[in-house]
Amino acid sequence: TGHSAGGHLAMSYAYTRNSSGKVKAVGSLAGPANLFSMSYYNFNIYNLILQPYLGAPLFPASQTATQRYQDCSPYYQATASAPPTIFFHGELDPVVYTDQSNSMYAKLGTLGVARKIIMYPLTFHDWWTNGTKTANTKKTSYTLSAFFFSTIKSIYVHGLDTSNGSLRISGEVKRQHNRTLSFSNVYVVAV
Q1: Is 21 strand, coil or helix?
Q2: In 3-state terms, what secondary structure has residue 96?
Q3: Which of 36, 59, 125, 157 is most exposed by smallest CB count within 10 Å?
Q4: Where are the alpha helices (DSSP H) in 20-73?
Q5: Which of 9-13, 23-27, 159-163 has the lowest mean pLDDT?
Q6: Which residues fall within 8 angstroms of residue 140, CB to CB, at 6 or more apart?
Q7: Interval 63-76: pLDDT, tens
Q8: What's the pTM value of the predicted model, to 2 decimals?
Q9: Angstrom distances, CA of residue 43 to CA of 40, 49, 55, 69, 161
Q10: What are phi and psi of 117, to 5 degrees?
Q11: Distance from C-alpha of 191 to C-alpha of 137, rounded to nearest angstrom
Q12: Are residues 132 and 122 in contact, defined by beta-carbon separation less than 8 angstroms?
């Protein structure tokens, strides 16, 4: 799970580094999914940010630049084996436009991947920075947890493992009404 660039990284990791199937679900909070489209529509802003990381400007147009921007975009990385994905986005987000989450949500649908999208009205790029947004924060936290637990099929809690550079949690959790939730190899990729 990650916010903004962290959402992009979480999706990219889940869609390209999950041949073992250890990533069971992924969450994106206003994360860019298509760097090619985002750069195209906001060249003056995003080219300055993305060019140093991708090593090529999107303009002037070249096949190399187009391919690089697409290769680094979850939109072009997702396949039918992508893990279930949940999106959260503020409808008034001026930093990462809602089409980033909406188009990724639609693409996963065509691939048959389980997904969910939550749009917050009258909300910008973040929704947790002031007191009036507390309800959104609680809703995000609850919905994210419920989505993840609904997609994870088996696990037992015995500790944390950070040996491979990500956080892995394994264990068993008792919840209300003596219901036990099990989970294994849950990886936190970007926070």
Answers
A1: coil
A2: coil
A3: 59
A4: 35-41, 43-54, 63-71
A5: 159-163
A6: 29, 88, 118, 127, 128
A7: 998 899 999 999 99
A8: 0.77
A9: 5, 10, 15, 13, 41
A10: -135, 135
A11: 15
A12: no
